Amino acid sequence: MEELRAKNREEEIRQNDYIKMTAEKVRRIADLRGHALKACVVTFGCQMNARDSEKLKGILAESGFLMTEEEQDADLVICNTCTVRENADQHVYGRLGRLTGLKKKKPDLIVGLCGCMMQEDHVVRKIRKSYPVVDLIFGTHNLYTFPELLYRRLTEGKRVVELWDGTDMIVENLPVRRKYSFKSGVNIMFGCDNFCSYCIVPYVRGRERSRNPADILDEIGRLAGDGVKEIMLLGQNVNSYGKKLDGAITFSELLTKVCGVPGIERVRFMTSHPKDLSDDLIRVIAENEKICRHIHLPVQSGSSRILKNMNRHYTREEYLGLVDRIREAVPDISLTTDIIVGFPGETEEDFLDTMSLVEKVGFDSAFTFIYSRRTGTPAARMEDQIPDDVVHSRFDRLLDLVKQTGEERSSRFTGQMKDVLVEDVNREPGYVSGRISENITVHLPGDESDIGKIIPVRLESCRGFYYFGTRQS
């Protein structure tokens, strides 16, 4: 383990050297063109991708680029891709079509692709053949080599493609440009060992790798010193954190240590796999007020038969038993979930099992998805793929139920006092928006000076999945 940590440190130094060389190259190009170079990072997908994009932005900023949200103003555009569902792929191809048109007007524009889509061989073959607009391609395993790859593209002037099948390296101490000054995601692990039959993630993100706890705590300590109040611990399955580390440590133990970092006032985590959520973790959440009262607990289906075919390693009854234990320990906790409709072989009876589970649990909200057939997964080869009209009918019925039960559940805090971490200025003049510990959005009177503050608020009225409140002194 120490040998690997030393290799990681050496690579951090090496990539930071490339950042310095790139910054000099960018300065010279800017002098020749007569204007500062601008970069735009476009993010598709999950919180892990959002955190990766913060790293890309940090590297670009340190390399001398000004950041912009407008592609047409940029000299470099990086698309950080997602491939969990087919529509995510299509969004990327659509974006490349627009960038092709833009590059005709701006021949010097550099276009890069990274992220999960780039770990699929058939996608990369298509990009190489049909999208000459793309100048730089790299994947999830070698994101930390972006400084080196960018330098190569700027100095060699030709397409750079570097993709790895996997890595044991975890190189985290490179520049980061956070979206928020007062909250931040922190990767605690990478990859996934669960191999749910519908999911492409283990194939594109790789096998589980946990970061050393000392490195995690050092990073959080630095963030706290920089004014961060809320931390989101990130992993494909945070509950399995530490299983492959030399020193035995569980996620609940790490969570306890994180809560002990001075300056950190709130701790969140995502995502939890039900099969690995321990009673010890429930106890730690119940005993520590810094841990936000929200667990995202994907169920995917309410049918034990479908869950088995999904390779989820729990039954309907086991999931419901877990929910009971969580709510017994933390009665007002918010539970959110993911649900897939139309998994191969799903019958009307299976779907009704999902509907009844939603009614029984009473989720605060649910992310509902139509099953997306992903090449390379076991489910893609399964027979009895469900007709589109049947899937869409079930999806609409589920949406209606999720909306109804979610609104009923969310209203339980009406009239209560809650602390709100203000995140943004609202579109409604004179209002700001933030979240309570239970992850529910609250709109309250305020202005930009309130952003980043934790303000006591009385929740006056529930409007479905959010509240309007009044500030309390």
Strand order of the largest sheet: 2-1-3-4-5-6
The CATH class of the largest domain is identified as: Alpha Beta
CATH homology superfamily name of the largest domain: Methylthiotransferase, N-terminal domain
Global geometry: globular
Give the fraction of residues assigned to helices. Answer: 25-40%
Task: List low-pLDDT spans.
Answer: none
Q: What about the largest sheet?
A: 6 strands, parallel
Amino-to-carboxy terminus distance: 50 Å
CATH architecture of the largest domain: 3-Layer(aba) Sandwich
CATH topology of the largest domain: Rossmann fold
Structure explained in plain terms:
Strand 15 and strand 16 form a beta hairpin. The termini are far apart. The strands form 5 sheets. The protein has a 6-stranded parallel β-sheet, with helices on both faces. Strands 15-16-17-19-18 form a 5-stranded mixed β-barrel. The chain folds into 4 domains: 161 residues, Rossmann fold; 113 residues, Transcription Regulator spoIIAA; 86 residues, Transcription Regulator spoIIAA, CATH 3.30.750.200; 58 residues, Nucleic acid-binding proteins (OB fold (Dihydrolipoamide Acetyltransferase, E2P)). With 473 residues, it is an alpha/beta fold. 40% of the residues are buried. The protein is 38% helix and 20% strand. The model has no long low-confidence stretch (mean pLDDT 95). It contains 13 helices and 19 strands.
